[in-house]
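Protein Entry — a single chain follows
Next Lines — sequence and tokenised fold
***
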Amino acid sequence: MSRIIFVEDDAELASLIAEFLGRNGFAVKIEPRGDSAQAAILADPPELVMLDIMLPGKDGLTICRELRPQFAGPIVMLTSLDSDMNQILGLELGADDYILKTTPPPVLLARLRAQLRSRGAQSPAPGGDKRFAFGVLAIDATSRDVRLKGETVTLSTAEFDLLWMLASRAGEVLSRDDLLKTLRGVEYDGLDRSIDVAISRLRKKLGDNPTEPFRIKTVRHKGYLLSPSGWQE
């Protein structure tokens, strides 16, 4: 049974969601305050953290930013704030998904399951490649270790899985729909910015040029590709 810590100050809503998830194979612990959430999560790390944004003591975006370097599992924002800016900010700060509270419970369940699957989604099949090396970049799927010029690059769960998928099909253009279906189990609706934001974060961490990327390239109207030649120095 997968464990979730759900940081939510609305007791009635938290109870309803916890009950629904409990009927579907999750053990949910509710943490009602933002200023005590991080200590609770790190004291007994769950498989997944679900965060509201508007919380007493400390907001969910701050928790996400502070927690991300210390917690390797998926962090999901569950909020009523539906602006593009909040979604982009949440993803930039390290959230793996941003879900509105108006999302139907079965869809929420599917997206949480997809996040938990994603940790191993890009791990190689038995006998398959477990490491990739492109010039100064080395990726190890067993240890989930990424090194650039010998230095460790710290990636979130979602960032590593995205990089592994790109690396495993290096030189091939992968559409947003390909990436979303594999990594999150959902189809691209033409509006979802999560893949674009994750690509932007990867480029920044991997020393790519943000205006003229040469390592993770954008193919206009088609998608993204990891260039094997972009890592030679």
About this structure: The chain has eight helices and eleven strands. Residues 173 and 225 are 5 Å apart (CA to CA). The longest strand covers residues 2-7.
